[in-house]
Design goal:
It is a single chain. The chain is α/β, with parallel strands linked by helices. It is built from 11 helices and 10 strands. Strand 2 and strand 3 form a beta hairpin. The termini are far apart.
Length: 295
């Protein structure tokens, strides 16, 4: 063990690969954990070590800490800091000059999946569930998840179907029940790995990180996508407003150079939704009951 922090530990796996392991039973992503991820990444880059991000429990990461989100929604400055920090740290993972591999055993939901989508590769346990479920609390993925899912959907389904496919996954908070289903839906790429034996996930992730040292190519900017025909928002209520905002955000991917401006747009949308009383009601209801509110 190289070091242990409040929310994570760093291990040396040998062969120039480190492991960042979350230590909470059900990890949630807050500013403290984001800072630990950033620090570990900076240290790995300085030491020229590949990095595996891992958690062996039933939940890899459950997204943002909703109790913390509830505390900051009344402060525009705090909300903007929270959103911007997640975007920045995840972008640093994606741009890292050393390989970063996400290794989920349990469920990767909301911000937990956004984290994985920014890794250079994912090595998932076969029974890993994953989904971008932010709509359940009245918001959209705000840490780059919309952009990364658009890119993956374009790769899997083509530029003509990407926006419609992405919109459907996000508006319904679809959760893939397995890694194989996650690949079919577009959460996982063809090059991402699936491990059948839960005890081999970390080993397989390490091997992928080693291989990426020689094989990884930086992703180029995505071309404009094609405007879809047919996607429609829900009939009534806040859900309709949420879906209309989401679709408008995704439709900006039809513009040339859309990726360059997407993070700023995503952040502005997320910040506006944070302040909506309907979103706060969904957050409160989920915290209190564990079940999503439809309003």
């Amino acid at each position: 063990r190289l070091c242990e922090r409040a929310s994570s530990a760093v291990w040396d796996l040998g062969d120039h690969v480190w492991c960042l392991e979350f230590n909470a039973k059900v990890p949630t992503i807050d500013l403290e954990l984001l800072d630990e991820i950033r620090t570990t990444l900076e240290d790995a880059i300085e030491a020229d070590k590949a990095l595996v991000i891992y958690h062996p429990g039933s939940v890899f990461a459950a997204g943002a800490d909703l109790k913390r989100v509830r505390q900051i929604v009344d402060s525009k400055a705090e909300s903007e800091r929270f959103i911007a920090t997640g975007q920045t740290v995840f972008a640093e993972i994606q741009r890292a000059p050393v390989p970063v591999v996400g290794a989920p055993v349990g469920a990767a939901l909301a911000g937990g999946l956004e984290l994985l989508l920014h890794c250079h590769a994912i090595q998932a346990y076969a029974e890993t569930r994953m989904g971008l479920v932010e709509a359940q609390v009245g918001i959209v993925p705000g840490w780059g998840g919309c952009r990364e899912l658009l890119v993956r959907c374009a790769e899997r389904f083509g530029a003509g179907d990407a926006i419609a496919r992405c919109f459907e996954l996000l508006r319904t908070s679809t959760v893939a029940a397995s890694a194989l289903e996650a690949r079919k839906l577009g959460f996982l790429r063809e090059g991402d790995g699936i491990t059948m034996n839960v005890d081999r996930v970390l080993f397989d992730a390490k091997q992928k990180a080693i291989a990426l040292r020689d094989q990884r190519a930086f992703r180029s900017m995505a071309p404009p996508l094609t405007a879809p025909v047919g996607p429609q928002a829900a009939a009534t209520g806040y859900q309709r407003e949420l879906e209309e905002v989401l679709l408008a955000l995704l439709m900006s991917a039809t513009e040339p150079g859309w990726e360059e401006r997407f993070s700023e747009r995503e952040r502005a949308v997320e910040l506006a939704l944070f302040g909506r009383p309907e979103a706060r009601a969904r957050i409160e209801h989920l915290i209190a009951s564990g079940k999503p509110l439809v309003n």
